[in-house]
Amino acid sequence: MKKLVDELIKIGVKKIVSCPGGRNQPLLELFETSNDFKVESFFDERSASFYALGLASKGEPVVVVTTSGSAVAECLPAMIEAKYQDFLPLIVLSADRPRELRYTGAPQTIPQQNIFKDFAESLYDFDLNEEDYKLNDLKFPAHINLCVGEPNPLKEMSLEVNFDQIIILSRLKPEDFKEVKLLLKNYKGVIVLEALSGFKEADFKQAEVIRQPDAFFLKMNIKSFKKIIRIGSVPVLKAWREADLCSSYYLEGYFPGAVKAKKLAFKELKDFILSSITNDDLKEIKEVNLKVKNTSEKLKVNYPQSEISLLSKLVNKIPETASLFVGNSLPVRELQHTEFDKGFKIFGQRGVNGIDGSLSFALGAMSDLNEEAWVILGDLTCLYDLQGFWPLLKKRKNKTRIVVMNNFGGQIFKKIFDKEYMLNGHQLNFKALADFWGLDYKNDLELNSSELESNQVLIELNPDNKQSKAFWTEQVR
Q: Is 296 within the bounds of a domain?
């Protein structure tokens, strides 16, 4: 990768516009530790690429660095403009998932190597392990796609125990929901129950249900299960991506383009999931699962201002007749630690798993529903879609609550990598935004002491980042 940086220096690149993400962290590390570049950070790839284009209009090549998936697509308008503004020297450097993950349904994995093919004058598709990163015959604008391995792999664990199979149950199409519920009613194996699935733990009384999988699989190796059966759309759970693809199966009709994992038609599913696991085999799984649950409840008391604790209190305020949209990044993961199965409908945007357009999607998805609507977003996700409040000007008749978990910069990548350059830090608050759009405003303190009477409310939660870090550190200990 250092050789690619050397190539950029050779062609005169001095300015880098970075958009921190999980996949491009190794690239940002190189740029941040080099004395050859001036690096500026943005959280929104669309704005970042136009900012880079403005810098490039002065004549020197400028690189905008993105993570994988929909983040790359956000650069398309600037790439089009670069071509039609007489081939301005804009370079999009996109981190990609490893080539072996293409066409597997892995999150943030799309065929991005040719996404700018009609507008970029030069296209390169490199692998991190390649020796030669020569930018031969470079013409502007250009796209350099670099396949990068997992920057933060799960730690290796022993494989002393071998279990037969595990089911990961995520969001289903409405027409599949009842059939899957009936199919798994008497299942006696292990089910990872994701919040977006819409199921309740009580729906599977004979199964061992894992509701906090991120913590669970830091204590038990997912590779100890011989078969991983994914029922529904892309899971939030990261651990399934660490498993061998030859052990992975998925229900037909999901994971568009996934040709490497094994596909099951619904009629094949019933015989396939018949569990051979005995109650004795589940003993270790039950012990780990119980420990994770008990630890989480204890930590909510010990760290009342942590993100998970605040989110748990918030979820308890949501009526069972309501609908809830939860945004990607931390909120959708932290929802797993709450009473998410109390009855309300849950929506998400787990296709490519980006954060773009989340508020707009949420309001569109719930526009024709009569019940109270709740939307939970991270601060950067909300800032990413400021214009998404526009439909609320039409004054929805039913109650709408927009919740912003403001941890002052989107802490997910800071949490993973513990690097300051991975944090888009700010000191913004969202009251002025509520005033701008004519919404009532509540913070987490006011939420505890008052009722939400008005139709449209923006609720800002301000967690204590130190408590949030302590919660997660002790949860996975």
A: no
Amino acid identity of residue 56, one-letter, is A
Q: How many CA atoms lie within 13 A of 140 on its CB side?
A: 22
Instruction: List, for residues 397-413, the tens digit of each pLDDT value.
Output: 779 999 999 999 866 66
Same-domain check for residues 56 and 114: yes
Q: What share of the chain is helix, strand, coil (3-state, %, to 5)?
A: 35, 20, 45
HSE at residue 261, side-chain half, CA atoms within 13 A, is 30
> How many domains is the chain built from?
3
Phi/psi of residue 65, nearest 5 degrees = -105, 125
Picking from 81, 113, 147, the residue at the C-terminal end of a domain is 147
Distance in angstroms (rounded) separating the CA atoms of residues 309 and 304 = 5
If asked whether residues 356 and 468 sit together in one domain, one would say yes
- Residues 107 and 217 both lie in one domain: no
| 196 plus 310 within the same structural domain | no
Q: Which residue has the tokens 């027409």?
A: 175
- Yes or no: say if 208 and 164 are a contact pair by the CB < 8 Å rule: no
Predicted TM-score (pTM) of this structure = 0.86
Residues 16, 20, 24, CA angle at the centre, nearest 5°? 85
| CB contact at 8 A, 280 and 443 | no
Tokens of 444: 């987490």
Q: What is the pLDDT of residues 135-184, one digit of tens each?
A: 988 999 999 999 988 766 656 665 555 788 899 999 999 999 999 999 99
Give residues with Cβ within 8 angstroms of 374, minimum separation 6: 318, 322, 323, 324, 325, 344, 400, 401, 403
Residues 46 and 111 in one domain: yes
Domain presence at residue 158: no
Task: Give the sheet arrangement for strand 345-347, strand by strand.
Answer: 345-347, 323-326, 373-378, 400-405, 456-461, 440-443
Which residues constitute the domain of residue 82? Answer: 2-147
